[in-house]
Each structure stands twice: as C-alpha cells, then as structure tokens.
Predict the structure.
Amino acid sequence: MKIVVLESSPNRQGASNTLAGAFVQGAKETGHEVQVFDVAHMRFSSCTGCYLGHDRRKCVLRDGFGQVEDALEEAGMIVYVTPVYYYLMSAPLKAAVDRLHCFSPKLHGKKSLLIATAWRADDGVMQYLKAWYEGLAEYLEYDSQGAILAKGCGNTETIIASPYFKEAYLLGKNL
C-alpha cells in the first residue's frame, strides 16, 4: 500500500516526527511504500476559499502543494502528524488540511491515522485534537486506523523511551 505521511512540526527532529519515523520504519519493513512530506517546511499558499477547484477536483493554486495532492490521490493511507499546540494541531498541518478541500471526494475510503505528541500529560491535552480528527475522518469517509496520542512526550528522548514509540512501530508493521 502507498502511504502518505504529512509531518508538521517546525522541529524536524522533534517528538512527533520521531514518533512518525517509528511508524514509517514498521510500514516499510513489511513492504509498504511510504512518502513523507514535511509540510512545516514546504512553501505553499493557504486555501483562498475560491471554490474554483471543485469542478476539476484539483486546487487551482500552483505551488509546492501540488506534489502532495498527486501523492494523496494515489495513496491508500494518509497519516497526519503533529505536535500539540494549545490543544490542537500545528498551523502547517491545518494549512495543509485546508488545501485538501477541493479534491476531498478523491480521499473518501482511504485509511487514515493521527500521530500527535504533547508535553503535557493530563487527560485533557488531546481531547480537542482527537475530536477534530474524528470529525475529519467522518466527513472524508476515511477508514480510520485510530490515533496515537502521546501525552507527556514533548521531546525526542521522552518519545523514544515511551510505550508510544513501540506502538507506532507495531502499527506500521501490522497494517
């Protein structure tokens, strides 16, 4: 299966990208083709809400995000990766998801997964992000594979030492 991973941390070696790396390693070991896009460091415009792409099912903006669109169209699974900032995803991930608007019917039925990390360990830290993801999965008719919500893991050292790291690896390996 082709898997597209949308990483969105401003810190390339941060906890969320490290956790996503464990998932990617497991998926590749079992023969899945994985393409990772670092949307936090890509140059692309925000959605303008123009609706011009609806008929074509492709965004009319011509920038670096076109390659993401092409990969997503061929993918069997989309993985959203983010650190948690003020109870939600990073701004680059939100901008990327907004750009999916005009061709969202092409995403229906694909598998999806959310991978998120947060410094805080309390139960409330992931509730709004989890609700957002569940709503997105329902709206886009994803076959959601759930979420890895790594609480209390705000840096690379804590994520590698946590049970979430092995969980991500095994999830990738057992797709």
